[in-house]
Automatic annotation (TrEMBL):
<feature type="transmembrane region" description="Helical">
    <location>
        <begin position="31"/>
        <end position="51"/>
    </location>
</feature>
<dbReference type="GO" id="GO:0005886">
    <property type="term" value="C:plasma membrane"/>
</dbReference>
<comment type="function">
    <text>Joins adenosylcobinamide-GDP and alpha-ribazole to generate adenosylcobalamin (Ado-cobalamin). Also synthesizes adenosylcobalamin 5'-phosphate from adenosylcobinamide-GDP and alpha-ribazole 5'-phosphate.</text>
</comment>
<dbReference type="InterPro" id="IPR003805">
    <property type="entry name" value="CobS"/>
</dbReference>
<keyword id="KW-0808">Transferase</keyword>
<dbReference type="GO" id="GO:0008818">
    <property type="term" value="F:cobalamin 5'-phosphate synthase activity"/>
</dbReference>
<feature type="transmembrane region" description="Helical">
    <location>
        <begin position="135"/>
        <end position="151"/>
    </location>
</feature>
<comment type="pathway">
    <text>Cofactor biosynthesis; adenosylcobalamin biosynthesis; adenosylcobalamin from cob(II)yrinate a,c-diamide: step 7/7.</text>
</comment>
<dbReference type="GO" id="GO:0051073">
    <property type="term" value="F:adenosylcobinamide-GDP ribazoletransferase activity"/>
</dbReference>
<keyword id="KW-0812">Transmembrane</keyword>
<keyword id="KW-0472">Membrane</keyword>
<dbReference type="GO" id="GO:0009236">
    <property type="term" value="P:cobalamin biosynthetic process"/>
</dbReference>
<protein>
    <recommendedName>
        <fullName>Adenosylcobinamide-GDP ribazoletransferase</fullName>
        <ecNumber>2.7.8.26</ecNumber>
    </recommendedName>
</protein>
<keyword id="KW-0169">Cobalamin biosynthesis</keyword>
<comment type="similarity">
    <text>Belongs to the CobS family.</text>
</comment>
<keyword id="KW-0460">Magnesium</keyword>
<keyword id="KW-1133">Transmembrane helix</keyword>
Length: 152
């Protein structure tokens, strides 16, 4: 069960305490639980979505997006911002790119990238709610976390 808690702690912002430092094999096994963590997040999002039924659609979508970002702790957004700053701000210069990656501050490219991505997510969530296809609020986190397995 420890690998599940490791995965939940890594992929989310829920206050999970582990009983010490995980062993490498436990870290490796935690990858198998990434889709299950996605299912937990998706279930929470779907439940929150149901609670919001009847709310104005744009507010509804904005609150679901906020919950989604809070659940994940913005982990993917932070990585995206760093990558956008480095790749686009580094102008192909390896040294400049590495220097930007080490800088804890976000530049204008990171901010623009995050704004655009969050606007796209908001529009997608709004479209799902309007078309009564909210089951994708459950499936999207599962698919996203399962896709991560292909990287390892």
């Amino acid at each position: 069960m420890l690998p599940f808690w490791i995965a939940l702690q890594f992929l989310g912002s829920l206050p999970i305490r582990l009983p010490g430092m995980p062993r490498p094999e436990e870290l490796g096994r935690s990858l198998l639980f990434y889709p299950l963590v996605g299912a937990v997040f998706g279930t929470l999002l779907l439940g929150f979505n149901t609670l919001l039924s009847g709310a104005p659609l744009m507010l509804h979508a904005a609150l679901v997006l906020t919950a989604w970002v809070l659940l994940s702790g913005g982990l993917h957004l932070d990585g995206l911002a760093d990558s956008a700053d480095a790749w686009l701000g580094g102008f192909g210069d390896r040294e400049r790119t590495l220097k930007i990656m080490k800088d804890p501050r976000s530049g204008p490219i990171a901010v623009v990238t995050l704004v655009l991505v969050l606007l796209l997510k908001f529009a997608a969530i709004l479209a799902l709610i309007e078309s009564h296809a909210s089951v994708w609020l459950l499936l999207a986190p599962v698919i996203g976390r399962a896709a991560m397995l292909g990287l390892f």
